[in-house]
Design a protein that fits this description.
There is one protein chain. It is built from five helices and five strands, in the order ααβαααββββ. The chain is an alpha+beta fold and about 210 residues long. It has one domain: Nuclear Transport Factor 2, Chain: A (Roll).
């Protein structure tokens, strides 16, 4: 079928323009505009959701790093004490803890201070590795597993060196994450490896 070319001037082009301006044509233009707007809105929503999820993941990772740093420092503090400056050392213990653990330290401070001064021991700790084993950002609770080397020096005795794994529970407070419980990790348990790894279990509490 032969096609009639559009001619210059006021011929076919004018007739085409008139048809597009006909009463029914604005509906077509409106439909196209709405379809384009819907596609743009869908794309923006998708990007918004992706951005929000990415921000949540980044925030969770930052909190996990904060918890690990606080846990390592607190466990190191709790295994460091010099009999010649025991008051200062026990002040650090108390400032590193909260909850029942803090209460126990405060209640038993006088007796423990007396024992340390009589023994004249100096204990120092070095963190070897650590990992966050649990993290609930909603409730403000976390767990850490810390491997450390503890050196204890006493008069007329060789320094005693021991490597230990410790399990700690942390609670979020107004002044940061603090130890609320601390205990020895079971030895020989493969789950007690504190080396950070992708398999470390964490949760954001959702």
């Amino acid at each position: 079928m032969a096609r009639m070319p559009f001619k210059g001037g006021g011929g076919s082009w004018d007739r085409l323009g008139a048809r597009l301006r006909a009463p029914g044509r604005p509906l077509l233009a409106t439909a196209v505009a709405l379809a384009v707007a819907a596609a743009v809105a869908a794309a923006l929503t998708g990007w918004s959701r992706y951005g929000a999820a990415h921000d949540d993941d980044a925030a969770f990772a930052r909190t996990r790093d904060t918890v690990l740093a606080a846990g390592e420092q607190a466990v190191q503090n709790m295994n460091t004490l010099d009999y010649s400056d025991v008051d200062h050392g026990l002040d650090i213990w108390e400032s590193s803890t909260t909850g029942d653990l803090h209460s126990q330290l405060v209640q038993g401070r006088a007796e423990f201070e007396k024992q340390v001064q009589q023994a004249q021991t100096v204990s120092t700790a070095k963190i070897l590795s650590g990992a966050v084993t649990e993290l609930d950002t909603r409730t403000g609770k976390a767990g850490v597993m810390i491997a450390l080397r503890i050196t204890v020096e006493a008069p007329k005795a060789k320094p005693a060196v021991k490597e230990s794994r410790m399990l700690g529970e942390l609670t979020r407070t107004a002044s940061g994450w603090k130890l609320s419980a601390l205990g020895q990790a079971p030895m020989g348990d493969s789950a007690a490896d504190p080396s950070p790894s992708p398999s470390t279990s964490t949760t954001d509490g959702k």
